């Protein structure tokens, strides 16, 4: 067993704040980045030029970023 007597326990409010911070970061940056990366590699696999793949990735990132921001703004 570990001796965790020196660490204070997190209360429910601290857990809620941590959860909201993780969810906000993952939804605002993680999801758009994952989709943009997917579009980039899909365009490369489809034998498009790397600049078109980069543009598709950037367009996808910004589109998904604003959709997520609009969805979670209410």
Radius of gyration: 19 Å
How confident is the prediction overall: mean pLDDT? 83
Number of strands: 0
Query: N-to-C SSE series?
Result: HH
Helix content: over 70%
Question: What is the number of independent domains?
Answer: 1
Q: Report the end-to-end length measured between terminal Cα atoms.
A: 44 Å
Taken from the alpha-carbon principal axes, the silhouette is elongated
DSSP helical segment count: 2
Q: Unreliable runs, pLDDT <50, ≥5 residues?
A: none
Describe this structure as you would to a colleague.
The chain is mainly α and 74 residues long. The protein is 76% helix and 0% strand. It has two helices and no strands. It has helices at 12-45, 50-71. Helix 1 (12-45) packs antiparallel against helix 2 (50-71). The model has no long low-confidence stretch (mean pLDDT 83).
Concise account of the structure shown:
The chain has 74 residues and is mainly alpha-helical. It has helices at residues 12-45, 50-71. The protein is built from two helices and no strands.
């Amino acid at each position: 067993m570990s001796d965790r007597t020196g660490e204070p326990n997190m209360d429910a409010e601290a857990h809620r704040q941590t959860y909201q911070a993780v969810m906000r970061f993952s939804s605002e940056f993680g999801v758009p980045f994952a989709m943009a990366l997917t579009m980039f590699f899909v365009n490369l696999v489809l034998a498009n030029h790397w600049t078109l793949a980069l543009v598709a990735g950037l367009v996808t990132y910004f589109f998904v970023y604003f959709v997520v921001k609009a969805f979670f703004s209410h």
